[in-house]
Amino acid sequence: MSNVLKPQTSPELNEETRNYVRCALQSGLVQLDDLKKIVASLLIESPDISPKRLSDGLIGGGLLTQWQANKLLAGKKRGFYLGSYRLLRPLGRGGMGVVYLGEHDVMCRLMALKILPPEATQDARRIERFKQEARAAAQLDHPNIVRAYDFADSGGKLFIAMEYVDGIDLHQAVLRDGNLSVSAAIDVLNQATLGLAHAHDRGIVHRDIKPSNLLLRTDGIVKLSDMGLARVGWDDVAASERTRLMGSIDFMAPEQAINSAGVDARADIYSLGCTLYFLLTGEVPFSGVTSDQKLAKHQTTPAPDVRIQCPACPPAVAELLMRMMAKRPDDRPKSAGALLAWIKQINSGNQLPCEDNQPLQSIAPAGDTACETQLFQNTIGDSSLLSGDSTAGSLGADDPPWDELNLGELPSFDEHVSSNASNPAQAKSASASDLSNTSSSVFSDPKRQAQREPQATPTSSHKTVSMLGFAFAVLVLVVVLSMVGYSAIGPSDPHMPKFQDVSDGKGRHMIIVHE
């Protein structure tokens, strides 16, 4: 007999749990077969299945992410798909939209999907800026820049499909762990400058360099992200852009605050200097209560000496930082190439502290991703993210009746375990017909459960006893033949025990051992 436990029979789901099941199925995130397997395993412990317990089981089974499960528990059943992508969770919010982690439904490739927010879809200027970001990113192909692969429109939702970087942005890394070591900060500076040099050589100015736009991958690779404010080409631009302030104030070059459209590569070098200061100290270089106060300090206040906040910083790095943050563009390194030469000189001159060796791989451990409790975690069907869809997630009168969502009967749990152990891939893709041999109808209407309960019959019991008797007889025959064979070919031993097969005339056998 199998020692694998069977699930409890005839469990009843309350209305709340049934609504959760309906929501999960209608979302398209889980399939009927997989849902039944999870329920079968949960019934081993207890027949009481709440929405939270079922949700945790789906997460543990790898069928839902934590974000998806939370949204289903909140009643959200729409907004989990965008074009060919299944949305797994939010990654962050940029200046031009919300970024989600998505998985292609055919290629199973993970992508970062940047979606233009709904309030921008009626603004021709913002739509054009979003397209400009896609065009800028499409021109760049460098290991230290996040690659863009596609620009698409799905049901009026514009999005850019970009390379997914599994790691953490450096702003979050500093907030979490504190300032970086000097060697780690210089490594970040070198990689970011390599990416900038590639962009500048193609006439692209980023205009929004800051710690949160530097993504640190788990293998220690730094990537520039968010080309939302990038300017393509050196030609003059529309007058409307000259009067708009573009960039992040804490890291903005003085000339960019005056004329954002007229800046060149040296504005990115200034912003990169402010970023390096933050990585070494955990603070922005110029503090202030208001934005105007910060902008004024960028214009007139000398750059602070980083060694006041970071005594371990060597003089060569402090000098480089002062040059990068010079008020006049002409006093800064003239290009990213010139900055790379300066960094190379520092690295080759043994000017970094020997004991200050912090590999970047240790900062972003594998699987370290954006926090899943931030406020921007909407589905793309939420009214706060997509206009005109305030009903997303509600269970209204137009939803299919419960009978149409009947999941049928559960699979036998021991069959489920053995099939998973032998072939996990086949177990996951089992059809509904393979799961129809059941002991309960968990998700059906409780009134119908009595009609579907299988009843034991005398015929089936007789067959079971006959099969057991036949199996025992075969076992006895094998043992007797083995002993006879051994006696025929083996050495004679007077002390060897003798075996005798005795039948009681009723089909039952026993073996008597004579010493």
Brief overview:
The protein is of the alpha+beta class and 515 residues long.
Describe this structure in words.
- This protein is α+β, with helices and mostly antiparallel strands.
- It has four domains: 122 residues, no CATH class; 83 residues, 2-Layer Sandwich (Phosphorylase Kinase, domain 1); 196 residues, Transferase(Phosphotransferase), domain 1, CATH 1.10.510.10; 57 residues, no CATH class.
- The chain contains 18 helices and 13 strands.
- A six-stranded antiparallel β-sheet has the order 1-2-3-4-6-5, covered by helices on one side.
- Helix 2 crosses helix 3 and helix 10 packs across helix 13.
- The longest helix is centred in the C-terminal third of the chain and has 32 residues.
- The chain is elongated, with a radius of gyration of 34 Å.
- The two termini are 32 Å apart.
**Could you name the ranges where pLDDT drops below 50 across 5 or more consecutive residues?**
1-10, 233-243, 368-408, 410-466
Determine the mean pLDDT.
75
How large is the share of residues in beta strands? 5-15%
Cα-atom radius of gyration: 34 Å
CATH topology of the largest domain: Transferase(Phosphotransferase), domain 1
Head-to-tail CA distance between termini:
32 Å
- From the helix content, strand content and strand pairing, which structural class follows? alpha+beta
CATH H-level homologous superfamily name of the largest domain: Transferase(Phosphotransferase) domain 1
Helix fraction, binned, reads 25-40%
CATH class of the largest domain: Mainly Alpha
Strand order in space, largest sheet: 1-2-3-4-6-5
- CATH architecture call of the largest domain: Orthogonal Bundle
Total helical elements: 18
Keywords: ATP-binding, Kinase, Membrane, Nucleotide-binding, Transferase, Transmembrane, Transmembrane helix
GO molecular function, one term: protein serine/threonine kinase activity
EC number: 2.7.11.1
Protein name: Serine/threonine-protein kinase PrkC
